[in-house]
Amino acid sequence: MQIRQEKGCYTLYKENEAIGTAVVDGTTILRLEVVPRWRGRGYGSYLLKELLRQNGGLDPKQATRFTAPLPRDAAGRALAQKYGFAPDGSQLVRRRVPDLSAVQLCHAFLTTRLAPGGLYVDATCGNGHDTQFLCTLAGPAGHVLGLDIQQQAVDNTNARLAAAGYGAVGRAVLHDHARLAELVQPGTADCVLFNFGWLPGAEHDVHSTADGSVPAMRAALEALRPGGVLAAVLYSGKVIGDAEKQAALAFFKALPLTQYTVLVCEFANWAQTAPLPCFVIKK
User: Fold this and answer.
1) SS3 assignment, position 266
2) In sequence order, what DSSP letters do the residues of 85-146 get, joined into one string?
3) What are the chain's domains?
């Protein structure tokens, strides 16, 4: 099967025969129909799914709103319901709220806890997304330090900060996060952020491990001021296993309550390998 699109008109072909059409204006589906002799075989479902996919409606990170006319027959109503359309007045509406990722939850938590100024550390800067976020928290009066063991990550991060206008606030350096204490004095950091795993877009054979991550988190706690936050997103899966995640969780659970408040935020209806946001607040 093939779908050809021209000026908002989508045509579904089976071999060389046009068996279905749809007309779309932005995110409004004006018409969707399948040739009568091909109905009831899933072609309408295939066409609608492709319309949504090509216009961002299946992207879990994107907020979308699609509308369509109210269907007149039961098959049309069933198809609309299958893809999340619901009656809203004189039309159908499909609203998609973006999934909340572990990193987004981490950022939201830190935004509510931390104030501008001070020292922020991105201990695993990667491509610089978290480092740039910390720069927005630190503001012009603050300072952000990014660390990574890969030169590509350091270069990518510094380029991102410069392009976003944060070159005077933050910088990344080539340094092992396990030796964080060499760069950050005890009791001086407002936040140390870890996003474990591997450099996005690079080979997966270089990734964080428990041998380096646990000492790094121990050093991070020493670096924090009272009221400061250690934030970590833990990962597990086929490539990296779960040894690092389990070691980090054991480390967190062993921290004394008199000195730290520890939060482990689990997405209860996600897979066991879902990223795990964790927070340690120093007392």
Assistant:
1) coil
2) -EEETTEEEEEEPPP--HHHHHHHHHHHH--SSSEEEESS-TTSHHHHHHHHHH-TTSEEEE
3) 2-96 (3.40.630.30), 102-282 (3.40.50.150)
Give the number of other Cβ atoms within 10 Å of residue 52's Cβ: 20
How far, CA to CA in Å, does 146 sit from each of 97, 100, 129, 180, 200? 32, 25, 11, 10, 16
Tens-digit pLDDT profile for residues 62-110: 899 999 999 989 999 999 999 999 999 999 999 998 888 888 999 999 9
Pairing of strands 143-148, 260-264: unpaired
Tokens 């089976």 belong to 14
Confidence of residue 208 (pLDDT cuts 50, 70, 90): low
Q: What is the pTM of this model?
A: 0.76
Phi, psi for 266 (deg, rounded to 5): -100, 135
Q: In what order do the strands lie in the sheet with 86-88?
A: 2-6, 9-14, 17-25, 28-34, 64-69, 91-96, 86-88
Go through the chain and tell me how many residues it has.
Answer: 283
Cα R_g (the chain), whole angstroms: 25
240: left (phi over 0), alpha (psi -120 to 50) or beta: alpha
Contacts of residue 11, Cβ cutoff 8 Å, sequence gap at least 6: 3, 4, 5, 18, 20, 21
How far is 195 from 220, CA to CA, in rounded Å? 13
Q: CB-based burial of residue 200 (10 Å sphere; 0-12 exposed, 13-18 middle, 19+ buried)?
A: exposed
Cβ atoms within 10 A of the Cβ of 164, count?
15
